[in-house]
Amino acid sequence: MTPRMVLEGIYTPLITPFHADGSFDFDGLADLVERLVSAGVHGLISGGSTGENYAETVEERLALARFIVERTQGRLPVIVGTGAMRTPDSIALAVGAKEMGADALLLGTPPYSVPTERENALNALAIDQAADMPVILYNYPGRMSVEMGREFLDRVGRSRNFIGIKESSGDINRVHLLARDYPHIQMSCGMDDQALEFFAWGARSWICAGSNFLPEEHVYLYETCVLNGDFAKGRRIMSAMMPLMRVLEQGGKFIQCVKHGVETTGLRAGPMRPPLKGLNKDEKRELEQVIRTLKTAIAAIKEGN
Length: 305
Description:
Blueprint: E1 9-13, H1 26-39, E2 43-46, H2 58-72, E3 78-81, H3 87-99, E4 104-108, H4 117-131, E5 135-139, H5 141-144, H6 150-156, E6 162-167, H7 172-181, E7 186-189, H8 195-200, E8 205-207, H9 215-227, H10 231-250, H11 254-264, H12 281-302
Parallel strand pairs: 1-2, 1-8, 2-3, 3-4, 4-5, 5-6, 6-7, 7-8
Helix pairs in contact: 1-2, 2-3, 3-4, 4-6, 9-10, 10-11, 10-12, 11-12
């Protein structure tokens, strides 16, 4: 039996850099992959909502994932997002991910259809059966209107492939539920402003879009809390990060902020694909100020001040 994949550290759901005409900027994506590898993140995720997967065809998503797998060359695990409205599309993404040598799948609830827990579980099990590889579930009821509740977790738990869950509900009681009743499913933080709480409850990984442009700072919080168990310092780091979390989690322009954040590092992110539009000048200025303040505060903590 193959050893179980361990979710450990910071996993970056990659943005998709676009040219002005909406085509993929593969050179920009390659630069981002290299930047994140050198910054010490622990894994990359292709085809998440941060990558604007809802505005891409299945073929485009597979082309992006293949490029990321080939560019990464085994230096980090690559997880491929398979979320889609149609089960056959999710299966095509999952089978394609396996064929290209990806390490795991990220599987959310199909949007818009509002499946029951049983229907949602059968959808997940169909994708698992088709791909037979490690799966990280993605619970995000704020976008999907559906919770991966006990019935769902009990049903999918019959397959060993469901190794983890990205928990993005924002409900701290879900963290308690997962930690106490489903310890065999590795819990990964998916709600950025609760990272400290997740780590305190035993999560050892954080899937965070902000690491596209602040990878070292996100890694620093993980190392402080998870590797060193220093939650007093962790609180200081998290406190310095909270203004950014508020902009990202509560600002309503999540992907737009992440893409502009990448641009501030000197890398190319390009425009959004419709229906979304980029930030305006005032929003850009506000985000840049938040990033500057955060970097200064965390640098001071690192220096022992």
